[in-house]
Specification:
Shape: globular
Distance between the termini: 98 Å
Oligomer: single chain
CATH class of the largest domain: Alpha Beta
Largest sheet: 10 strands, mixed
Helix content: 40-55%
Number of domains: 2
Length: about 375
């Protein structure tokens, strides 16, 4: 064999060796669940239908796919427990209608009862370090079941033409001049009026730890009845009445009220001194999903501060990460959130052994 032939053979062997090393490194890189531009694959992600899902389809999912190579098949999921029932039934058959699901907190807790959610290894979600403490859901034994997806606030809203001065406290709803003027969410489990009343008049939420304490809070809430014109389930019904001044005050969603303000309606959203009610949705993975590796990449991406900031700007949600890392301006942050310490719902009382009793007393004492 000539010197030239030997040299070419040596070069060829060297190239094959290098290619092999590169393939092995890439496989190891992807295998450990590290976000990669070459991850590939597909992931079904459930998000609330309508405007919300459309915003994710337009502003979030395409950039995620461009960066990671993972295609997103978005699934429109209903709010409330209907989606939970579908997930549980599908899981029993070893199926996952969506791999990653955006779930409300009470539904998250109910899913824990049947061990529906695949537990997370936080080491594979390094960006969890940016999350607010309330943005990590855990099983009773400490395993992580959910990671904060988006947040939103319920605030005290009012018509500026009827009430020239903005309210400062949730306690303003009890004042005599608010007679027949309020619109309030109809259910204990989504209005969080028990928590609002407990913090406003009883110094905190500990009073909600017992039936006697809850009854004291409900009795205080019952004093509101002369001031309540509408206990609403249909958000659109209250929004229209608020904008027209027919029902000039109540509790509503801060982000939606901001859209009404932008459209020129005479309304305002106030974070009372006791705080707005911070509610949120979490990313949860069905135990039936076979895409946990891709789910880790997706959830880690969604925890990035710049992505949470993009959600605030494009979707109108409150960030689930600490404000200081988002880069949001004061104006941008105020449009979706507040620095006032929020009211955190006691989701446990709406899903535990007191839930049926609370619903019964709620109807008897307040909405009947």
């Amino acid at each position: 064999m000539s010197r030239k032939t030997k040299l070419n053979a040596s070069k060829s062997t060297h190239r094959i060796f290098l290619v092999g090393i590169i393939i092995i490194v890439c496989m190891a890189f992807i295998g450990f669940g590290v976000p990669s531009a070459f991850a590939g694959g597909e992931l079904k992600v459930g998000a609330y239908g309508g405007y919300f899902k459309d915003s994710f389809d337009k502003h979030i999912f395409p950039d995620f796919t461009k960066e990671t190579g993972i295609k997103i098949q978005s699934v429109a999921e209903p709010t409330g427990e209907a989606w939970l029932v579908q997930l549980e039934q599908a899981a029993r058959a070893g199926q996952a209608p969506a791999d990653v699901n955006m779930m409300a907190q009470t539904v998250m807790l109910r899913g824990q009862r049947t061990q529906l959610w695949a537990p997370y290894d936080l080491k594979k979600i390094p960006n969890h370090k940016y999350l607010l403490p309330q943005s990590i859901n855990r099983y009773p034994d400490g395993r992580v079941s959910g990671i904060g997806a988006v947040g939103w606030y319920i605030t005290l809203v009012s018509n500026t033409e009827v009430f020239k001065t903005a309210p400062t406290s949730w306690g303003d709803m009890w004042k005599p001049d608010k007679k027949n003027s309020l619109g309030l969410l109809a259910l204990a489990s989504n209005s969080f009026l028990l928590e609002i009343t407990a913090k406003t008049f009883f110094g905190g939420y500990d009073i909600l730890n017992s039936k006697d304490g809850i009854l004291k809070v409900m009795n205080k809430l019952a004093e509101l009845k002369p001031n309540v014109k509408l206990w609403y389930r249909d958000e659109g019904q209250f929004q229209q009445a608020l904008q027209s001044g027919e029902i000039p005050m109540g509790q509503y969603y801060h982000d939606v009220t901001g859209l009404a303000i932008a459209d020129g309606h005479p309304v305002r959203s106030t974070f009372p001194k006791e705080g707005g009610v911070y509610d949120s949705g979490s990313w949860a993975v069905s135990k039936a999903s076979k895409k946990l590796k891709e789910a880790y990449i997706f959830i880690n991406y969604m925890c990035r501060p710049e992505i949470q900031a993009k959600l605030s700007r494009k979707v109108g949600t409150a960030p689930t990460v600490k404000r200081g890392v988002t880069g949001l301006t004061d104006k941008e942050f105020a449009s979706v959130s507040s620095d006032i310490q929020p009211i955190i719902p006691r989701y446990d009382i709406y899903t535990g052994e007191l839930s049926d009793w609370i619903n019964q007393k709620w109807t008897e004492m307040l909405t009947k």
